[in-house]
């Protein structure tokens, strides 16, 4: 806003908000007029509607502008162009103009006042929870989406009635005549509102909500039902779209919030929302704060730069939890890729990442200080989970901050020596001597490889240990079928490609291919086709599902260390990276020593078979070291 609006915006007390009421008669010259009044959130506040909308017009590339005004106290207050269609809809819904108070952020907050803006954002959770109703404004309805609200209602009714099985629902709605309706539904979820970081919490927090799409309205319950139907109709083009994920992710978060189950850490929420858009990158953290159970780690302050907000949050996490697990996110959200000034150990949340429910081992279900947003039915108390990565045992972080540097204590387990090739990376051949202190046993090596590929876990939420014999047999069966000239069973191309990239990698002096051949008679599974491994990546708790998660979705690479240990490393790993255990970090991490040896760069977390439960700290020959991570 270019001019002084001090007479419009009177100073607010600490716990106050402003509400706006629109007048039916309008202002001078037909100008829309309104009343803007402060109210205490904890005091007598009238019932009000809160508006959830986007500041940008729904046409891509059109920036937020305020060519229009409303009249308040005989002054003209600029309002966002994106609100004009909403005002038209509001005028058409005449009863809502009769004594209805509204909370609309760009009108009710003095955005030029940095201190007020910061304070009001801290109240967002209470504002949306206290609202009599929250309206989700999606904008004008597109001409090609006529009837989409009716289709949403049909899908919801079909799902809620529970008359039809999933197979019957697919048979009904995957008929060709429904293709235009699925296309319209995809367009509904492509509206800009669904892409914004802020609307993640705005979808989840309120109890009474309604979508407005042009002149039509629909309940959140109906939209949830349509998403459930879309999830079951796997053959419809809708489910595989980003639009579907935008809606389904919000539904997941809303269910977790409504049930009050488990923890919802800032780190897990911001990672889960990393595909969403934000005009101000500070809002990648601020915009999910009201959902988080550890929101106290994040003080809203718009006077700070983006980098300072991210750095302060990482420091606050480490100080409060005495854990270094937060730094593991820096491999996915890398400062180097964005060219920012952040140190390598601080996640740069500006990176756009296709979100996974469990993006890292540090997101394991057993540790609630990060945790993950698994479905409500999969949430249990962490003490009920039988397994937990604990590479540093129960030690607390031993660290100091020197400006933006993290000085941490720990130990070096080993050094990366070889890395299997991948779709985006060439093979890095190991160069360690043929003989190491580890025995050459094809069976032991292959079992270690199978454990590494699934990170020794049965499920993607990392709750249960890998069923060793079952998964090993599945792994060997896939290997056998991949190299067999006569292949009675199909092998997914993802596994064939991985095997081709991995065959040349030398482990303890022998290529992976020769290790397979050496074990062929003794170790290859003799499974019949009736007990062949499940090859559907969407069926959870199978070897192939876990392989698909780690190798395909997470782009992790099989690695061998100088001492011959086997593990799984991030795509950015290099030969010579140090495999370290830092006190207060649940998993081993890779550090890259600087040219002069006096500092280190953080690379990412690393699975190292045999060292995930503190075994490294039990070795007397491993000395404690201090790492200055820049």
Automatic annotation (TrEMBL):
It comes from the Eukaryota. It holds the Pfam family Het-6_barrel. Residues 48-202 form the Heterokaryon incompatibility domain. InterPro entries: HET, HetReg/Transcr_Mod. This is Heterokaryon incompatibility domain-containing protein. It comes from Fusarium vanettenii (strain ATCC MYA-4622 / CBS 123669 / FGSC 9596 / NRRL 45880 / 77-13-4) (Fusarium solani subsp. pisi). The lineage of its organism: Eukaryota, Fungi, Dikarya, Ascomycota, Pezizomycotina.
